Every structure is written in C-alpha cells, then in structure tokens.
Amino acid sequence: MRDMKEIIINEVYLMGMVNRHPNIIKIYGVTKFKDEPNYSLVLEYADSGTLGKYLKNNITTFKWQDQMKFANEMASAILCLHDNEIIHGDLHPSNVLIHQRTIKIADFGCSRLHGSVINKKEKPYGVMRYMDPKILKDHSYDLTKKSDIYSLAVLLWQLTSCKLPFESETDDDVLKICIINGKREIPIKETNDEYVELYQKCWEFEPKDRPDISEIVSTLKSINSEKNKTIKSEENEITKELENDNLSCQIRNY
C-alpha cells in the first residue's frame, strides 16, 4: 500500500484543483483526531446525504425537471474534472451527495490525473454495477475518462428509475458476466427519447464508442427540461426488454 500521507496529499491536491465548482464538494482542510491513526478531510456539509438515499426518500416527488437538473449538474461537475485532466474513477450514488437540492460530487480517493501511472495491485475498481465493463473483463485495462462516462450513464438511468441498477440480481458473478456481454438496464417507460439515447451511447462496451463529456453536456442542455417528450412506441420498448431478457438467459445457460 502507498503511504497514507501520499494518498491524502493526492486527494487534497486534486480536490483543490476543482474546489470552486458548485457541483463538487468543497474541501476546507485536513485534521487528525487525538489517538486516531488516520487523517480526516474537512469537507462541505451535504444536508440530504447521498444520491441513493435522496432518490429513495423522494421517489414519488422526483419528477422530470428534477431529473434533468441533477443530470446537468453531474455532467457539469465531470466536465470540470475532465477539463482539468482528472479521472474520478469511482462514480456511484454513495459518492454523489445532495446539499439544498444540488449535486455535489465527492470522494476523490480513487481519482488521479489522466495519464498517471498506477501500480496494478493498487488499482481501484469501484462499485461493480457502475464500473467500466472493459475493466470488468480485462483487469489490465486502465481507468480513463471514458470510464467515468460509463458510470455517469448508469447514474443517468438511475435518476429516471430511483432504484439500484439490476436490483433483483443477487448473484454478482452472474451479473458481471451479463454486463461484460452487453446486458444493460431497460429504459424506464415514458422517458425522453433523446435522454435514453444519450445514456445508451454512454454505456457502450467500447470506450471509443462513448461520447466525451463535452458532448454529453451539450446534448443535455438541448433536451427540454420542462416536458418529458417521448415518441417511441410501446412495442419498441417491449422488444428491447425481450432482447435484454434473452441475452441474460443465453449468458446464464452458457
């Protein structure tokens, strides 16, 4: 393991680079409590806890305008990170905080500068349901900015569902194989077509097929946040669901 001080210094340094962005948690300092071996970061307070908790508590009132607001704020924060050559590396609902109905990206413990070298034994892998499937398949493949894009895609889907992806799947080993082989969550009915198309592009298996964060920000801004317009037929949605279920069965049989 790297020395704990080096880990703290790296996290503080990266957070300091983006400390003024309104959708990234602010760092105020580092402290060490008496008789405690580890250091603690002094961070901005988030009054509503994690995104996962917020969605669970507000499932009946969290509508399209709220979904788009959070989507735009998450994308804005990641744009700031990527513009500063920072890969977050561990985006999932517990690392996205809410303060006064505003997104705050947090936990930079797995973050690094783009192109920096990391020992394979120390490589962070994050939460499996939000992880880049390229890394799930090949552990020698390193984190990139496109890894953050995949994680963002799952979060964008979660904003419309207010639930954990693949929450009925209890076998992580089976789920891992399914994700590697292309299984993705089914779009929530009556979700804006452009929004669905965007996150589906973002969770493509091949990183090169995923859009850059600047394209995502631009697309989100062009989507009508006042009205959740959909034009696809219910038949198309059912076909997609059947295709996903069929893929899952094939993988399980294999």
UniProtKB/TrEMBL annotation:
The keyword Nucleotide-binding applies. Residues 1-223 form the Protein kinase domain. GO terms for biological process: necroptotic signaling pathway. Keywords: ATP-binding, Nucleotide-binding. This is Protein kinase domain-containing protein. InterPro entries: Kinase-like_dom_sf, Prot_kinase_dom, Ser-Thr/Tyr_kinase_cat_dom, Ser/Thr_Kinases-Pseudokinases. GO terms for molecular function: ATP binding; protein kinase activity. PROSITE patterns: PROTEIN_KINASE_DOM (PS50011).
